[in-house]
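Reproducibility note. Readers wishing to regenerate the assembly model reported in the main text can use the exact inputs given here. Chain order matters: entities are listed in the order in which they were concatenated for prediction.
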Amino acid sequence: MSAKTEERPAPPGQMDVTPLAKARQKSWFTEFRRRAMDEGEPYVIAAAVSPHEIFHALDVPLVTNTWYSSIISAKRLSPHYFDLMDRLGYHEDLPRYLSLPMISTLDDDPERAPYGGLPRPALILDRLRGDYAQRITTEWARAFDCPKFFLDVPVQRHLIPDWWRHAQTDWETLYGTERLDYHVEQIEALIDTAETVTGRRLDRDVLTEEMHRINRAGELLAEARDLIATSRPCPVALPDQLTNVMAATWNRGSQWSVDHMQAYRDEIANRVEDGYGICSGEKHRLLWINTGLWFNTAFYRAFEESHGAVFVWSMYSNYFSDGYRKYFEGDSLRALAARSISMNEQLHLPPWMAGWIEQQARDFGASGAVMLTPVGDRLSAYGTRACKRALEAAGLPVLELSASMVDARLWDNDAMIAKVGDFIETRIEGQA
Amino acid sequence: MIALQKQLDALAADPEAEARRHAAAGGRVVGVLGGAAPVELIEAADAFPLRLRGDPAGPTDAADAWMEPVQEGALRSIFNQLLTGGLDWLDLIVVPRSSEQLVQFYHLAEHVRAEEPDLAMPPLHLVNLLQTPEARSTRFNRREMERLAEALGSLTGTRPDRIRLREAIQWRNTLRHLASEVSSARRSADRSVSGQDAALLFLAGQVRPAPQAAEMFGRAGDLAASRSGPRLLLSGSGQENPGLVRLIEEAGARVVAEDHDWGERLYDHEVEEAPDPLDGLVRHYQCHAPTPRLPVGVTEARFTALLDAARPDGVVFALEENDDTLGWDIPRRLDLLKDRGIPALVLLRLSFFREDPETASKLVTFLEPLKEATR
Ligand code: SF4
Ligand code: SF4
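Running the prediction on these inputs yields the following structure tokens for the assembly.
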């Protein structure tokens, strides 16, 4: 979820559907604000990687902590909250991005906090990812005096290669029956808690329909992705991919997301038919690996004019179609468990991360990759070294950029542009 | 009988010696990572559990080719040993899921094994420990323990059955009980055990069989001497090497308690009796193992209990480089200490490999007023 609020002229080649995705996010927020902030309807704060589907089906408003964090950053309030963290004794190496919303609650200054601060939620849902998530959320729930629910996800013992080939239909084998059993039981407990704290009842048929619609949206995205992968020149800029796919991801399960993916796919198909490319002088196709550069998506396009180099892929291009689709008959809860059980592992553990990206490099015809490793975020760093090693061994040059992601002002754009430019000239053009 | 001090000196010089002797004599040695591996089960299968340690003076270059520099220093060092054949004399390494770092270690090791099949790496066994206080987690953990029992049984040929397990638990419980006496002995007002000696004793319990360690613990009184200086609680990241405790004691204070996973926390809760001893073991590791995955409230309660038991004059929080977890606990603890009028020092970014020259001077400055007050 990006938090760009100010209007800018549309970048060249922007898709017609992109403003619609942005408008959807805006109307989501208006609606959220009315229901949860103005009218005091029970709402939930949930981790980005958690089963939002339950709350969508319950028709309970939901925000992610990452969304509020991005708003805080966009409104340039992070320095204020970082100062507060220092004063409270949270040392400066602690992961700050995910904790900004919690700190804004501790600050208890509605005048300053975006939109007057998040009101007390009915529940905070977090996934025990890493060892610090429970600490931030425990502190936050105390500050709100609200209930919390932790999803504890057992580690995958054995990583079957090529997860994306098994993830959609053969997920029982891929993720393991014991882990799925555990996770289903846990989601049942979550549903109980959610029903108690919101006073609603889950209609499982509604959930099941939602789950089928997610599969349908994923199919449309898979078609779009194939078109992008196989068409020369690349018909869609990466920022357009991000905006449209993320809107469908956050709104997953809705009819809107299916319709939107249909429109996205169709517009791409038209572009391909017309032979349209965002950079007709395309010479090099690049992948963007790991953390997204949300506050500066223009960066992805900075090498088209200078080098004919186009970023054609990031994990958001098709994680929704490869990772979210779970075909099932009958029991949608188990499919839901399968969706959320190994999400981070697929994106971050060495063989899975590297294997998937290698496949994308082949499919998209990439000749190089840029990998962003955020400093002060250990979780996002894990797996990157082995991934880089595997990609290089497979013949794909990788440039690793490391930067702080908590404060956009610390991003040295000129230096980063120079690095990527040099990488293209020496490693990609140099080897050709 | 060899004097305990001599035994401790030998232990400090070569902590793995006993395990190597055991292996050389044809016995099985199972390495364990972290403080949450069920060593009782390993002992019940007639194997020698050896907690693995990093080498602060050793290289990390082989590890660095695969592993991010943000990984814990000790684990980078152990990974290096693993890749360079230094651990090939172990029959198995048990990795509990007790921290994110260990999970990452496990997966990276398995990845390297797949990529470089010629490396002589012992097999790893992941124990998928869940520490959420739920019955479903207990049931899941029970199956994990059964799986480990099976793996150990087929490794050694000795099934860790109920009788053997009960016996192993009794030995470890004896050790835990004796450890509490060591802790009281170092907290006592007049004749007490030093923090450095206590650290070595607690290390013995991690690298020696339980009966041997128990024998050493039982003689801790021999080390008692009259000691002066402020009494400190050491909190934060695991201190597997004695460097920091030595620095503190050289600066004129005494470490009388700690809550990291190489100290008394390992021993502070006995495994409860259960009709099936495996159930007792499961509950023990789920609810009491000293790991960052225990519920925050539990960890907090233990810190408070430790303050009450040890009544320190000051607290030193020591966090490793790249800490992204334990730092979250500190503000609350500082508040608690403020209420009780106990001063605290926070040391950040401590390297596993190098002593920060500033650490000693920070300690001296911190201790100055404490020494005045306790004189
Ligand atoms: S080559 Fe240059 S002019 Fe042509 S499309 Fe690409 S950026 Fe534009
Ligand atoms: S990149 Fe990793 S941390 Fe970031 S949203 Fe994706 S899964 Fe989460």
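We highlight two features of this model. Residues 1-375 of chain B form a domain with the Rossmann fold fold (CATH 3.40.50.11900). Chain B has one domain: 1-375.
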